[in-house]
Amino acid sequence: MNPACFVAVDWGTSSFRLWLVRADGAVLGESRSSEGMTTARESGFADVLGRHLAQVSAPGDAPVVMCGMVGARQGWVEAGYVDVPARLADISGQAVRVPDQARDIRILPGLAQRDVHAADVMRGEETQLLGCAERMKNSDCLVAMPGTHSKWVRVVRREVLGFSTFMTGELFDVIGRQSILRHALEGAAGVDGAHPAFLESLHATFREPELATNRLFSIRARGLLFSLPPTDAAATLSGMTIGLELAGALRQAPRDTPVILVASGRLRGLYEAAFHRLGLNFTALDADDAVRRGLSQAARDIWHIEEGQKP
Amino acid sequence: MNPACFVAVDWGTSSFRLWLVRADGAVLGESRSSEGMTTARESGFADVLGRHLAQVSAPGDAPVVMCGMVGARQGWVEAGYVDVPARLADISGQAVRVPDQARDIRILPGLAQRDVHAADVMRGEETQLLGCAERMKNSDCLVAMPGTHSKWVRVVRREVLGFSTFMTGELFDVIGRQSILRHALEGAAGVDGAHPAFLESLHATFREPELATNRLFSIRARGLLFSLPPTDAAATLSGMTIGLELAGALRQAPRDTPVILVASGRLRGLYEAAFHRLGLNFTALDADDAVRRGLSQAARDIWHIEEGQKP
Questions:
Q1: What would the pLDDT profile of B207-255 be if each residue is shown by its tens digit?
Q2: How does DSSP classify residue B132?
Q3: What's the whole-number mean pLDDT along residues A165-190?
Q4: Closest CA to B297 of B11, B91, B17
Q5: Which of A28, A252, B117, B304 has the CA that lies 20 to 30 A from B182?
């Protein structure tokens, strides 16, 4: 097979994104929706994919490479996990083909760390990791992919040595919405990385992670005793959850290890501000770009597409 | 006033407990219900109290001393806070009288730490603290009152130097019920302090508090990769939240400072097991006893009741 173009799909729990990509990497079309795995389990994976392929007028012979929850046990076809330590190239190598389809459709596996004292899994982020490969050169690095479940990956010479997930985004959400702190945060505006309460809380928790749940209650007490404004309360909670993550994540590698931050939007701003505050050596990459680049790299590996090829 | 008996009331957000106590400390009657502050705001504080007083046939001249959320801004009468550092005796000294009542009814204030970098409040636990006074002798101690919002208080020669609240119980609840970990904990039995997963997780987080949110996600990953049983998942979460609390709380005093644990039931068992695991020098006191003793101490201070007095 030597296709002139291919289709890249990032299919998560609650979102679907598809790109039609030319062999040289140019994006010819894009289609997005909220038909994530949860929806597609009802309406049928093949139908959802088919409608989006039609949307971008994908040629009948264009193969499809996908990542994300579509490959989970409860997804379309289970794509399993590649166990770490693993080379980045192993990810494409263990893609699973969706059976009984006219088109060649592959799903990339996740990564698993089968250590009972540091058990961890990722599904979707391994493709962003693949999309950062050019930035890694041949040296050590830490790749940070913040989110609901932030992933920190140690990569040495394009080999994934190990990784750690921190429940940062989910912790912020359940505490901010379900705990007694919801009163203190009510009406808060979005927090950005320049907020002094964010940076102060970040640094305090980074230095003293053992006081994390004490600082949580302190947000409540400052509301009662000092009428803490809701946006300051949200900034403090955000700084605390990210500070706790960084205190743990940065232990995985020597202090001067370069960090590649893979993030978009508001979250990118918060982590860039945090990394500056802590004096880290880092570069940033847009998360959407990273997943598209990673899928494209996988397509080139699987179907031996050469980047120089023109349609 | 030199009453033969008095009434002690612990009136929390969702619970009401009343004891009729003879001057010498003997309990003559008890009445409990779920008519906490939230219910009483609807049905009327005076009515709720009146029914319980009738229940134990309290004499018309028996004065009433109360603690808890009944003294909050949204309670019956706001009883404010005593600022720390404060002597234990200041708590009784700043009790607030409920106006326009035939009976002498007083509400004890809470404690506040008005330090913007370590803001904290308690309401109700100050009375348990007063109830531990006999155990304190004249030395340094830390008083631990675990719960939804665990309180750790540093007391030196019956002066409260400061305190810290840790959102331990609430963190366990919101994470266990509202986060992705709810799947891993589904069907879990109650955890006791002898559970190996509890003690292992406790010690791991005590040593490395910065990995707290990583260990949270690890519970999820162990469910996927190693079919972790739900009770082990709950024990791990419990050990993690308590280990994080202890890592922060024990920094407040030298390592050999005696700890007084004030707790009841299952929680008491978990903390006793944790304290043994960490080799702490501690004694334990039942939380219900402590609050009744504290209210009795306050009654003796306020109305100059002598313990030797007999009706």
A1: 999 999 999 999 999 999 999 999 999 999 999 999 999 999 999 888 8
A2: T
A3: 95
A4: B91
A5: A252
CB A68 within 8 A of CB A10: yes
Give pLDDT, residue B121: 97
Give yes or no for A244 touching B (CB within 8 A): yes
Q: How far apart are CA A125 and CA B188, in angstroms?
A: 31
End-to-end CA gap in chain A: 14
Strand-pair partners of B83: B112
- B214 and A164 within 8 Å at the Cβ level: the answer is yes
Q: What is the pLDDT of residues B85-106, one digit of tens each?
A: 999 999 999 999 999 999 999 9
Q: Is B127 exposed, middle or buried (0-12, 13-18, 19+ CB in 10 A)?
A: buried
Nearest chain A residue to B72, by CA: A224
Question: Per the CB < 8 Å rule, is B118 touching A212?
Answer: no
Domain-wise residue ranges, chain A: 5-123+291-303, 166-280
Q: What is the pTM of this model?
A: 0.93
The arrangement of secondary structure in B1-109, i.e. its CATH architecture, is 2-Layer Sandwich (3.30)
The CATH number of the structural domain formed by A5-123+291-303 is: 3.30.420.300
Residue A109 has pLDDT above 80, yes or no: yes
B225: which chain A residues are within 8 Å (Cβ-Cβ)? Answer: 112, 114, 119, 121
CA distances from A57 to A19, A51, B223 (A): 11, 10, 41
Domains A5-123+291-303 and A166-280 share a fold: yes
Closest C-alpha among B170, B153, B171, B151 to residue B162: B153
- Which residues from chain A sit within 8 angstroms of residue B114, using beta carbons? 225
Lowest mean pLDDT among A132-141, B138-147, B183-192: A132-141
What is the maximum span of chain B, computed from C-alpha positions, in angstroms?
69
B66-76 per-position pLDDT tens digit: 999 999 999 99
